[in-house]
């Protein structure tokens, strides 16, 4: 069978399964999730073995240490996977929720019902735990899923697919509700993103290159997250203790995450006071600083930032710093260079906080909190399939609700239009 | 200037204007809308004259009567335009609305704020009143708009553009907040739909061919409405008076609208009783019937429906009729042939109504009401930019809210992530 006809048949089966999933009862979906968790627990050895196969192939193909680390299924990661499945089972079911029912002058009663999107295609790289995460969120939100993980993880993903199928079967749900692509042929991705008749939305997870390519070539809507160039702006009326704590936490809590601060903006009125204290802390923590000319004048021995620094997602212990004069300059900088992921202001001034919240056009806008909070778990979504930097459908952390939409429902008593 | 650089500059100006629009006060936006209404009222003669120019060119280019009718700005249509602007001014402003604020265990308070999408591109055909409708909805929802109407209406649209600019100016809003494309070069559309850096969403309004082409070629998200193949299912437990009223109204209230019923499904248990009565009414009203073999057996002298009839949007006094055995067969037919626009069941049975509402995957699902109610005004949205048959972002009638999205806002007191 050609890759094209394989993908067509996967798509067709997903579309059919999506109908059954849309009407599946909450109890049934939870049963499937818990059975998957049990299957993972009882097949721990097989999973580790399959993963070892992937790791050996990876080593002989010369994968680097970071890639091998992401590929590895450790006992702790398997525990997390089991725990994750149980957590998703315990989340409220968003499907079927009815809201805003109201009567109209015509006598009809109108409102909205939350419904699954249908078939979701997830394209990701070599982390096998994403397979289970994506499967569980699509399943709980009543969608069918087509999962395409990195070819490096093919054996691990197929072993996980067996656990998923087992769970679906135990609950009496169609085995095609979650399909893990069996071919490592790269052409499969091309077909997956160009089948609007079978796939309703694509969620790519991975590097910027992958996501840009998919967005460019997709013929179905994409919920995407490009980069996270996040800012913290320390206002002239900031509480400086809060400012320092937040600026340190937003940069150094973790370096490789998309909600890590990459550029610090400091109001000229407080730069003299706050920057030397911050520089000392960053220095202790091993963070390299790159500053605008005014920052360099205050801090002396740091590298000058270039235009490129303002639009770089370092994902590393490097921080760009710019001194600005007031809120408007800070927001101009943010609206120019931010990737519209997460931006924060530190201020005690009510009106400036209010303006920042309204005027900064990012998926998460914060006052006096670390950008590191931009996360589905921290926001109380219970889980997250990704963080959207798009503007339509879903912005920010995407949980179960982001995998659904709302249709209109109309209840009448024989009404006709006059 | 080439069309490409013209469109680039339009895009760039729209992006800049969108920032000012996002923070524009409600009062300011309403002032602009009312000033536009006054400008239209006071320039009635100029508008009619510009429209006459379009009509004369249209006649000499051999446009058909229907097209000329859509192109014409009659005094009544100008009155409607003025009334429409005033109505949009009176609608509540969706921008800035904050919802779901809740505290998290970390101490941060998190919720959502409704925000404009940014820049909206609207592509439509030769009806000049769409220019004002689209401009007013984008403006009120805090977006910048780029409007591209059919070349047949260029003089009318430019005359309307002057009224729009006047209104923006009076309110102190940037003139580039609503730009009406000045070139009739078709290449302009191609550029408009491939500038993700300047345009956040495209709303095409027009025939299926136009919309399919735009969806295929667009590099930005499209909120689209393809066709309206709407169904009414008369269940075995329908109140037959309601059933007949709804079936007649859904087909004959207007033939050319997307929420008009195109296929009637009747349960085999009641077909003998209900079909002859309906056929008589349809016959009086001049509706041509095409039936499945069982329908033909009951009604005798009607044409047999072919497979093609089930997926045809007639937009004409033609109706396809099929007899089905029970709810499941009816929903199978709908989920196979419906364009997911609007589908209705007529029944007095609670459980069947409940299943139909949940399991039919259309943007509007109705019980005991005419499909003709699927409309922004009837639903209380106040206005409508179109009806979406998409599944992500917005389904069904799209009003002001559909031209916005929600960002997360986080209020803290110095919280950092542990």
Automatic annotation (TrEMBL), chains A, B:
It comes from the Bacteria. HAMAP family: ProA. Catalyzes the NADPH-dependent reduction of L-glutamate 5-phosphate into L-glutamate 5-semialdehyde and phosphate. The product spontaneously undergoes cyclization to form 1-pyrroline-5-carboxylate. CDD domains: ALDH_F18-19_ProA-GPR. Keywords: Amino-acid biosynthesis, Cytoplasm, NADP, Oxidoreductase, Proline biosynthesis. Residues 10-287, 310-374 form the Aldehyde dehydrogenase domain. Residues 1-16 have a biased composition (Polar residues). It holds the Pfam family Aldedh. Residues 1-24 are annotated as: Disordered. Belongs to the gamma-glutamyl phosphate reductase family. This is Gamma-glutamyl phosphate reductase. Its EC number is 1.2.1.41. It comes from Pokkaliibacter plantistimulans. It catalyses: L-glutamate 5-semialdehyde + phosphate + NADP(+) = L-glutamyl 5-phosphate + NADPH + H(+). The gene is proA. The keyword Cytoplasm applies. Pathway: Amino-acid biosynthesis; L-proline biosynthesis; L-glutamate 5-semialdehyde from L-glutamate: step 2/2. Its main location: cytoplasm.
């Amino acid at each position: 069978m050609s890759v094209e006809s394989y993908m067509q048949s996967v798509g067709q089966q997903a579309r059919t399964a999506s109908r059954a999933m849309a009407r599946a009862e909450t109890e049934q979906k939870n049963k499937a999730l818990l059975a998957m968790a049990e299957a993972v627990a009882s097949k721990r050895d097989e999973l580790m073995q399959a993963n070892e196969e992937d790791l050996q192939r990876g080593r002989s193909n010369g994968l680097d240490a970071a890639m091998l680390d992401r590929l590895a299924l450790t006992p702790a990661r398997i525990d997390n996977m089991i725990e994750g499945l149980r957590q998703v089972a315990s989340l409220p079911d968003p499907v079927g929720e009815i809201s805003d029912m109201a009567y109209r002058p015509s006598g009809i009663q109108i409102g909205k019902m939350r419904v699954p999107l249908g078939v979701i295609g997830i394209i990701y790289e070599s982390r096998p735990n994403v397979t289970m995460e994506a499967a569980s969120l699509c399943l709980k939100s009543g969608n069918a899923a087509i999962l395409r993980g990195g070819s490096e993880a093919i054996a691990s993903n197929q072993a996980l697919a067996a656990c998923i199928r087992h769970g679906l079967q135990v609950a009496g749900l169609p085995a095609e509700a979650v399909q893990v692509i069996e071919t490592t042929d790269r052409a499969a991705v091309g077909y997956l993103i160009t089948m609007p008749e079978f796939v309703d939305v694509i969620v790519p997870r991975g590097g910027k290159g992958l996501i840009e390519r998919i967005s460019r070539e997709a013929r179905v809507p994409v919920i995407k997250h490009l980069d996270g160039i996040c800012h913290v702006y320390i206002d002239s009326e900031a509480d400086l203790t809060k400012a320092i704590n937040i600026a340190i936490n937003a940069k150094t809590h973790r370096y490789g995450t998309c909600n890590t601060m990459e550029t610090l903006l400091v109001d000229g009125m407080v730069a003299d006071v706050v920057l030397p204290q911050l520089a000392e802390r960053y220095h202790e923590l091993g963070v390299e600083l790159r500053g605008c000319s005014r920052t360099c004048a205050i801090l002396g021995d740091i590298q000058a930032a270039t235009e490129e620094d303002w639009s770089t997602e370092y994902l590393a212990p490097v921080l760009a710093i710019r001194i600005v004069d007031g809120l408007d300059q800070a927001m101009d900088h943010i609206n120019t260079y931010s990737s519209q992921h997460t931006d924060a202001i530190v201020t005690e001034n009510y009106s400036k906080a209010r303006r920042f919240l309204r005027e900064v056009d990012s998926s998460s806008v914060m006052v006096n909190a670390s950008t590191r909070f931009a996360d589905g778990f921290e926001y109380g979504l219970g889980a997250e399939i990704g963080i959207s930097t798009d503007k339509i459908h879903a912005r920010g952390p995407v949980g179960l609700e982001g995998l659904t939409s709302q249709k209109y429902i109309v209840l009448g008593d024989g009404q006709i239009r006059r």
